[in-house]
Amino acid sequence: MADITVTEHLLLHQKLSPHATGQFTGLLYDLILSGKTIARHTGKAGLMDVLGGTGEVNVQGENVQKLDEIANRIMKYRMERCGALCAMGSEEEADIIRVRPEFPIGDYILIFDPLDGSTNIDVNIDVGTIFSIMRRPDGRKGEVETEDVLQKGSRQVGAGYILYGPSTMLVFSTGNGVHGFTLDPGVGEFLLSHPDMHLPVVGHTYSVNDGNWRNWSPATRKAVDWFRTGKASDGKSYSARYVGSLVADFHRTLIYGGIYMYPADTKKPEGKLRMMCEAFPLSYLAEQAGGKASDGRGRILDRTPGHLHARTPLFIGSKEDVETVERIYAEEGGA
């Protein structure tokens, strides 16, 4: 395979994507630069004083890890200066982040989780940066308001993640399929390694935190039990696989198929995952790869968040597997 860089790939496919403008390409360039910088820090995590928590609690009520803070600072610094954004939203920040007037103001809004799975850093498990890109609604001028950011998931114009693992990978879509790029440390570039990624129609793995069993509804227990004991449409049984790092679990599901589940429970009746910085971008990728993403009742990307940190249940992966959950929920009268 020829060594095609991310920028070259965007330029080659520009005619196929109405969003691949110069401003948009510049946005992705700075996202990639942010990812390289974060990868450098995570790669040295065991050698530097960046392991463990800061002692602070973020807006989600979660303990802030040192690398959370570092990754968030890198993303904010780099992306505010890229010239393509008017606002950002971070999992680590309570409110929207407006681009200051001393920097060029663009037309795009970036929502991101700077370091998903950061509690796994101490044990050297894969983590990642997840991002979602939207355009500011047409006709909106002046200071960006919260309602400009709270858009339906289907209005995304791009989404992806950067996975920091044995190799650093960028997986993204601008509405024309899903493509994966692997960072070549020798040249410092992300090179096309996984063109046109597709989710199998049905998989043979399910991924769920079984420790929440006692807090699930009867419908959720029945759905999970189906994957424990049932068989896929090709007659094969399912195996359980769960990393506990959303971006790592999704990446495996994207490549091999199957289903990732994080249902609502009695402790988190609205779900645990953040709609805008986790569920929306991964759902966008799943659909672009031929898969499906649901809250158990319907399409995730049809939902509109009520606030920046709205949460949702998530069932995502192979089309047949997600539809199995929806069928069981419908038969049992809901989640």
The CATH topology of the largest domain is Fructose-1,6-Bisphosphatase, Chain A, domain 1
Under CATH, the homologous superfamily of the largest domain reads Fructose-1,6-Bisphosphatase, subunit A, domain 1
* Structural class assignment: alpha+beta
The side-by-side strand order for the widest beta sheet comes to 4-3-5-6-7-8-9-10
Radius of gyration: 19 Å
Contiguous uncertain segments of 5+ residues:
51-55
Proportion of residues in helical segments: 25-40%
> How do the SSEs run, as a string of H and E?
HHEEHEEEEHEEEEEHEHEEHEEEH
Would you count the extended β strands for me?
17
Strand content: 15-25%
**Could you name the CATH class of the largest domain?**
Alpha Beta
Distance between the termini: 46 Å
Total domain modules:
2
Helix segment tally: 8
Quick one: biggest sheet? 8 strands, mixed
The CATH architecture category of the largest domain equals 2-Layer Sandwich
Mean pLDDT: 89
Secondary structure elements and their pairing?
Layout lengths: L5 H7 L9 H22 L9 E5 L5 E3 H15 L4 E6 L6 E2 L9 E9 L10 E9 L10 H4 L6 E9 L3 E6 L5 E6 L4 E6 L10 E3 L10 H12 L9 E2 L5 H11 L2 E4 L10 E2 H14 L3 E3 L16 E2 L1 E4 L1 H14 L3
Parallel strand pairs: 3-5, 11-12, 11-13
Antiparallel strand pairs: 1-2, 3-4, 5-6, 6-7, 7-8, 8-9, 9-10, 13-17, 14-16, 15-17
Helix pairs in contact: 2-3, 5-8
Task: Describe the protein.
The protein is of the alpha+beta class and 335 residues long. The longest helix has 22 residues, at 22-43. 46% of the residues are buried. It folds into 2 domains: 6-194, Fructose-1,6-Bisphosphatase, subunit A, domain 1 (Fructose-1,6-Bisphosphatase, Chain A, domain 1), CATH 3.30.540; 205-332, 3-Layer(aba) Sandwich (D-Maltodextrin-Binding Protein, domain 2). It has helices at residues 6-12, 22-43, 66-80, 146-149, 218-229, 246-256, 275-288, 319-332, and strands spanning 53-57, 63-65, 85-90, 97-98, 108-116, 127-135, 156-164, 168-173, 179-184, 189-194, 205-207, 239-240, 259-262, 273-274, 292-294, 311-312, 314-317. α2 (22-43) runs antiparallel to α3 (66-80) and α5 (218-229) packs across α8 (319-332). The chain has an 8-stranded mixed beta sheet with strand order 4-3-5-6-7-8-9-10, with helices on both faces. The N and C termini lie far apart (46 Å). Helix content is 30%, strand content 24%.
